[in-house]
Write a structure and sequence with these properties.
The structure is a homodimer.
Chain A lengths: L2 H21 L17 H11 L7 H14 L3 E5 L2 H12 L6 E5 L4 H9 L3 E5 L10 H11 E4 L2 E4 L6 E4 L11 H10 L5 E3 L7 E2 L2 E2 L6 E5 L12 E5 L2 H10 L24 H12 L1 H19 L5 E3 L6 E2 L5 E5 L4 H13 L5 E2 L19 H7 L2 E4 L11
Parallel strand pairs in A: 2-3, 2-6, 7-10
Antiparallel strand pairs in A: 1-11, 4-5, 8-9, 8-13, 10-11, 12-14, 14-16, 15-16
Helix pairs in contact in A: 1-10, 1-11, 2-9, 3-9, 4-5, 6-7
Chain lengths: 398, 398
């Protein structure tokens, strides 16, 4: 065995030892992210059962939308069946259409790229910043200077002939992108911004909630998110007309009438059911506590990993307050072998862990999409391991 | 006031009087269709809350799929987020693609047409039979003889140049289409059958469950259906490979791996959450009782309306056992004025009622779709009124 692999083994063992100082012995699997149900979840769901209102009509959907708007500061929140559906509709409303392009990180969950594909559009992959894990706006600007030009019909990729219809910053693991630079570049190139805040409920950039910077933003309430509705998502916007359109298109575009079934355009069956919204309302009531727990868990991890050579905990970027949705260990150097050995050892030690997503340009259906140089993405893909991040892993504050 | 309108008023009053003999005085609104939760609904949902398994993983989804397969006799059932999603994927798997055509009734809920549109395909509307309210297969055969021809690449509409990729019989209000004739015509023209059994869980054609005749079928568990999961649906198939593909595509096409996030084709976030599946498992346990209640309600309505001139209750077609999902009054003659007066009077009398759907070719986005002569559809659209059909409106049998 080489000294290098001995070093690797020692590093992995030390990481596990330090994680155990935070998490205890882990005699049973510690999951990557489990929801915490410690409020009115059962009570509100029982109300749905008792009244029979479990489906697309019911007061919890409206209440959830109101709570979301209030919490995020968005003027409107439209609750839908999941984050993917939210992104699909948000892109459509931003003007993404067949044979247009959508700028997005390739270091993202598959939903970001798929939502563009559902619109018939083509993802155009951007590299990310080491400091945010999200789109590197300065380098995107340089890239656009090479491939794009402003014409009367919009920003055109002159290599493909397609219109660049939107840019989708995704706030990886809850850590906000450098939004001031990104908005500046988007404005310069006349590209609408749709924020993928699926992971960043409770994350702020300069005291403003993520998902409220672009014309449209989206949230996710999947089972592994900070707040869950089983499956669910929401569209955020300050624009009254976009909100009205979003609500219409996500409810089969049915025209209002006491009994007639008239639909006036192609719509989608994307409304969040009342049963799921009931769970979300109870969860949102506890969001400040959940965020506090998650920050304290991240702080404990950061302290435990401090001064350990070879790895560090990713911490929130400057000017940001992150929800620390998923805590991420970042290896000092890109090494898939080390990463995979660490993953195997962590999972064997009952500490459920996973790598960051496979970059989109490496998947067969997105292999031929346009892209900028993705060297930071390729580097980070070999360095990041997510570790258990459930809010229930720390006690509540007093 | 003309004698005709006096007759109309008398007819409407007599209909309401007779409905009250079944439903009582209706001092509060009697809804069109309310779910009945009288089993393990709360218990199973509480298990989700207690264990934290509310989302896309969890044992209730598998259990629901097993119960559905067992009840319908399909080899496989794949639970998804709603009936629209089920139909979208079933059409894709049947080979529906961009710029192909899908034969379907124009007298259907919007989801049937929208699912074809999601595939980039064009609905091709068929007229319905007075006896089934579903596709009139004999007349479809005549229509195909005029517009279609068999070529090596399939059945081609020679007027549009497009391939006819599927036919979608929809079992209106739970009443089965004449499936033997429909399957014969589909086989003759080499057109795959995808059954839209969204409304017909518990309905049988010649003792075989609807949704199990075509290569693929779908069910819906929307809040207004016989069995509800809040929102939900399922794909039915006997084909192992189609089932495997359906499961893969509806779960983001993620390749199985303990931690890697690799997706090998364009997939969808369509998996039913465990929370909703829990509700469905409890509901399915009670399905025989629900079906019994619904049959007895239909029987009571039929008796109440017997011998009333001008209107009748629609009853199950020959060779069929219907779930009587929504009971339908059928006026003797097509008269929108009478229909709308009846709807207004019923709703004013606290008996929530609605007309059949606006035929698809009358909606702006489907106005230019190919179609056969739709005279029976146009006739029926002015004659049908659905009346309250909840299983809770009759007592359980002993």
């Amino acid at each position: 065995m080489s000294s290098s692999s001995l070093d690797q083994r020692a590093l992995i063992e030390e990481i596990i030892r330090r994680l155990r100082t935070v998490l205890g012995e882990a005699r049973t699997p510690v999951l990557l992210h489990q929801p915490l149900f410690a409020g009115n979840e059962s009570k509100y769901i029982q109300q749905c059962i008792d009244t029979g209102w479990v489906s697309s009509a019911g007061s919890f959907v409206t209440q959830l939308e109101h709570q979301l708007a209030q919490f995020t500061g968005a003027r409107h929140a439209i609750a839908v069946v999941n984050g993917t559906a939210a992104l699909h509709i948000a892109l459509m409303l931003a003007g993404v259409e067949r044979d247009s392009e959508v700028l997005m990180p390739s270091l993202t969950f598959i939903a970001t790229a798929n939502a563009a594909a559902y619109c018939g559009a083509v993802p155009h992959f951007c590299d990310v910043s080491l400091r945010t894990l999200g789109i590197d706006a300065a380098r995107l600007d340089d890239h656009l200077a090479l491939v794009a030009e402003l014409r009367p019909e919009g920003c055109i990729n002159h290599r493909t002939g397609r219109r660049i219809a939107a840019v989708v910053p995704m706030h990886t693991f809850g850590h906000p992108v450098n939004l001031s630079k990104l908005l500046e570049v988007a404005a310069k190139w006349h590209i609408p911004v749709v924020e993928d805040a699926a992971e960043s409920l409770g994350s702020y950039y300069r005291q403003k909630h993520t998902g409220t910077f672009g014309g449209l933003g989206i949230l996710s309430f999947n089972g592994n998110k900070t707040v869950t509705t089983g499956a669910g998502g929401a569209i955020l916007t300050d624009d009254d007309d976009l909100a009205r359109r979003a609500r219409h298109i996500t409810t089969t575009a049915k025209a209002p009438h006491p009994w007639e079934y008239v639909h006036d355009e192609l719509g989608y069956n994307y409304r969040m059911p009342n049963l799921n919204a009931a769970l979300g309302c109870a969860q949102l009531e506890k969001l400040p506590e959940l965020l506090d727990r998650k920050r304290r868990l991240a702080h404990a991890y950061a302290q435990a990993m401090a001064d350990l050579s070879g790895v560090s905990l990713f911490v929130e970027p400057p000017d940001c307050k992150s929800n620390y949705w998923l805590n991420a260990l970042v290896l000092d150097r890109a090494d898939f072998d080390l990463r995979d050995q660490l993953l195997a050892a962590l999972n064997a030690a009952n500490l459920q862990s996973r790598p960051i997503w496979r970059p989109m340009q490496q998947l067969p259906m997105y292999r031929d999409c346009p892209r900028m140089d993705l060297s930071t993405t390729e580097d980070l893909a070999a360095r990041i391991v997510n570790i258990p991040s459930s809010p229930g892993l720390v006690r509540p504050s007093n």
